[in-house]
Design a protein that fits this description.
The chain is an alpha/beta fold. The protein is built from 35 helices and 24 strands.
């Protein structure tokens, strides 16, 4: 098939942000969907937030507030989640809502909603109605369980999300209750996915015409972040236990106290483990046969022996000293800063990551800004609006606005959004490959580049037993994150490998890499070289700390970025030591935010013709996910620390024991839900005795004990359904088998079955969003090492069969790792 490619001249004048000209109507509330709209607004989109008259978005009540006030204009949660928006007040539940909405939807043809499609349809403003008002409209619905399916009407909360998506089963200690992760990161992760999906739909519309309905599920976003419960169960027959005082199953890690502060000790690979032990003066641990082959995904007394030995080694040293000394030896330690310490983190200060916004009521407030720098344009957020602040301005603009002409479908109106886009994926492990996976699932042609000298580190992680296929082909992590890609190997230390990349980049749209900044320069493949070959190329570099600054060459992995982002500081039992989330750390969070960055750059190139280099910092990207907590510190000097499963407003909220070692998460957001729960458990007097959330919070220990006694012995799934029938947010704490058999996930196609040679059919988490008008995405398994060398080098370069044979002989290319020969 011929590829018709559009070439551009570089624009003379850059717009204010990469999404300048995009018009977004935010009719959502809460956290996830507003975060989606905020990300688009921060990148230059014109976002109008529709709020209820008098009350506004309910995040205006969440706080925290400065000086014990409850002024809705000073809610830190609302402040962060609604930057770069204008506010108009409309009652969308009034009888004349259609009259109010139609002109807005005609002018702002991307609509972000926190309701399901069913709920919107019942109110006369569903996908079909919106499409009839504006055929170009893109509707993004963001909800706990997604639109459609047997659980689509179920109520959710961050705790329930963690339970139902597999996080809570991994977070905490085996003899204690499961935990939610720190902050509200199930919601902000969903919002980031929703932003990426909305950008995909907008890019698709610019190519094929027509509108779209994008539906996003928080349960599926959490599932994508968890991975391990289902993958370990299918690959190794394991149901990972809750044991997050150590790192995830893909490596060795502890968070331990020092003489001043906490430090994260991380080792993702066997060489890093030996380096870590050597750094701490404990080579005896690395060399002791007793500790060989130890599993880091289940409780083991040997892990506690190692913990105590390491704890002793840290006793007389500060976290800051340890971090810099370890990084100097390329051991990926991580600091665990408090919220106040996060703002003063050296790379944040050097890169100017925190942005000070002047607000007419709150004064000066610093919040996380945009987590990347660009050679083309560097947008910055502006302050959130006062309630209804822009009513007159927006209505006046509507009167003078011109309705856009009807869109016309392209040659293939059902084409995937990135069909025709070519991406070179030079990244390894997780963050970069996640970003590339999002593009591949959206129809991009992604060429995965490894080498036989150094295969992708995920290939060697969590592999099958010795009687399985070659270990580098049996890693569940690699096989999940690299689907829908074609694979080649190139030695980029060799000029012949570098020349092939230079040839491939001539016709590439995007290059993705996540090395430390020195590496691409060492290869002779940095942006200055690649853009000279192809001025239209977009290159994104996802390094740990960014390309400039005193920490630029420090190594970072998912566990350390989780620690450095503030998530570890907020995760753990109340007033106890910080814990890991139990997941693979910050990599997924960085990868999703990276996809938002390069998709915005692609939209910018479509409009302006300008390529660019995106310098993304992974710790900045991860810090974005707890930006509401950071605003809570800078606006109200509130650092909640570790609070277990409690919530600052909702009560009761917790995980309670059920039959057969099961657990259920329950949240009461309203007095009505509390009354229904009290009556269900035979305590009607509680309704008046603890009539509001503040009273319930004061007595939460006693209430939790009574609730735990009532749930004890009941089936977690059956109890979930009973509670949800009363509109009480509740979710069973799900493990791998539970997730694979969940009817809501099955109804939404949340797992992709793929057959891999020697591994068999396994089920991999899908993206957490669905497009209504596109054809189904591809479901090709991840490539074997160098599997597509011949076809790619023959079709896309000028190499002859003899040239390719010479490269094989010289180990510039190949299909077997040198270390395995």
């Amino acid at each position: 098939m011929f590829r018709i490619r559009k070439r551009f001249n570089v624009a003379q004048e850059a717009p204010r942000g990469p999404l300048h000209g995009m018009r977004v109507l935010d009719i959502s509330e809460g956290i996830a969907a507003p975060f989606c709209a905020k990300l688009l607004g921060d990148l230059g989109a014109d976002v109008v937030k529709v709020e209820k008259p008098h009350d506004g978005d309910y995040s205006r009540t969440l706080g925290p507030f400065p000086e014990a006030t409850a002024d809705p204009e000073q809610s830190a949660s609302f402040f962060f989640l609604n930057t770069s928006k204008r506010s108009i007040t409309l009652d969308l539940r009034s009888p004349d809502q259609t009259t109010q909405l139609r002109p807005l939807i005609a002018a702002y043809d991307i609509i972000i909603s926190s309701d399901t499609a069913e709920t919107l349809t019942a109110r006369g403003m569903g996908p079909d109605e919106i499409r009839s008002w504006n055929e170009r409209a893109i509707l993004t619905t963001v909800s706990g369980f997604g639109s459609f399916g047997p659980h689509s009407s179920y109520q959710s909360s961050h705790l329930v999300n963690c339970a139902m998506g597999g996080w809570a089963n991994l977070c905490g200690m085996p003899d204690r209750e499961p935990l939610q992760t720190g902050g509200a990161i199930s919601e902000t992760l969903t919002g980031a996915y929703a932003a990426a999906a909305t950008l995909l739909a907008a890019i698709g519309r610019s190519r094929r015409g027509g509108g779209e309905h994008v539906d996003v599920s928080t349960q599926e976003a959490v599932l994508a972040g968890a991975q391990m419960p289902t993958l370990f169960y299918e690959y190794r027959g394991l149901t990972p236990e809750r044991y997050s005082s150590v790192g995830s199953g893909a490596g060795a890690a502890y968070i331990l106290p020092t003489s001043e502060g906490y430090i994260g000790l991380n080792a993702l690979t066997l060489p890093q483990w030996h380096m870590l032990c050597n750094f701490l003066g404990r080579d005896d641990i690395a060399q002791n046969p007793r500790f060989a082959g130890i599993s880091w995904s289940a409780p083991d007394e040997r892990l506690e022996e190692i913990r105590e030995a390491f704890r002793e080694s840290l006793r007389d040293r500060t976290a800051d000293q340890l971090f810099h000394d370890a990084e100097a030896r390329r051991v990926p330690f991580g600091l665990v800063p408090s919220l106040s310490e996060l703002i003063d983190l050296v790379p944040h200060q050097e890169r100017g990551f925190y942005t000070k916004l002047e607000h007419p009521v709150c004064g000066s407030v610093s919040i996380p800004g945009v987590p990347f720098k660009s050679t083309a344009i560097n947008p910055q957020p502006y302050r959130p609006p006062l309630l209804g602040e822009h009513n007159d301005e927006i209505l006046a603009q509507l009167e003078s606005s011109v309705t856009p002409p009807p869109s016309h479908s392209g040659d293939d109106p059902r084409a995937l959004p990135l069909a025709g886009i070519r991406i070179l994926d030079l990244s390894m492990f997780f963050a970069g490959p996640v970003a590339a996976q999002i593009a591949a699932d959206a129809g991009a042609e992604v060429i995965k580049v490894e080498s036989v000298q150094r295969i992708d580190g995920w290939r060697a992680s969590a592999t099958l037993a010795e009687d399985g296929p070659p270990t580098w082909e049996s890693s569940p992590y690699f096989n999940w994150v690299n689907r829908n890609k074609r694979g080649i190997t190139l030695d980029l230390n060799d000029t012949r490998g570098q020349d092939i990349i230079k040839h491939l980049v001539r016709d590439a749209d995007i290059v993705i890499e996540n090395y430390t900044p020195r590496v691409m320069h060492k290869f002779g493949l940095d942006y200055s070289v690649l853009s000279a070959i192809n001025p239209n190329v977009i290159m994104i570099s996802l390094s740990g700390f960014g390309a400039k600054g005193s920490w630029r060459d420090y190594v970072a992995f998912g566990m350390s970025t989780e620690q450095m982002s503030g998530v570890s500081h907020l995760t753990g039992y109340e007033n106890e030591e910080p814990l890991f989330t139990g997941m693979t750390g910050g990599d997924l969070f960085s990868g999703v935010m990276g996809s938002v960055a390069f998709l915005a750059a692609l939209a910018h190139r479509d409009a302006s013709g300008q390529g660019q280099h995106i310098d993304l910092s992974q710790i900045e990207a991860c810090n974005m996910y707890i930006g509401d907590a950071m605003a809570g510190w800078t606006l109200a000097q509130h650092d909640p620390g570790r609070t277990g499963n409690s919530h600052p407003i909702y009560a009761p909220q917790g995980c309670y024991p059920c039959a057969n070692d099961g657990w259920i998460a329950i949240t009461c957001k309203t007095d009505t839900q509390w009354s229904a729960l009290a009556n269900l458990i035979g305590k009607p007097q509680w309704t008046s005795q603890f009539s509001d959330a503040s009273a319930r919070s004061v007595h939460r220990t006693a209430i939790d004990a009574e609730l735990g006694a009532w749930t004890q012995g009941q089936d977690k799934i059956e109890l979930m359904h009973r509670l949800q029938a009363l509109d009480i947010p509740a979710g069973a704490v799900m493990n791998g088998p539970d997730l694979l058999n969940d009817p809501q996930l099955a109804a939404r196609g949340s797992f992709l079955a793929q057959d891999r040679p020697g591994v068999g059919v396994k089920h991999y988490p899908n993206q957490p969003y669905r497009f209504a008008r596109c054809r189904p995405p591809p479901t090709e398994r991840a490539p074997l090492l160098g599997e597509h060398l011949e076809e790619i080098l023959t079709d896309l370069t000028e190499l002859s069969p003899d040239d390719i044979a010479d490269l094989v002989i010289a180990d510039v290319i190949g299909t077997v790792p040198i270390a395995a020969r």
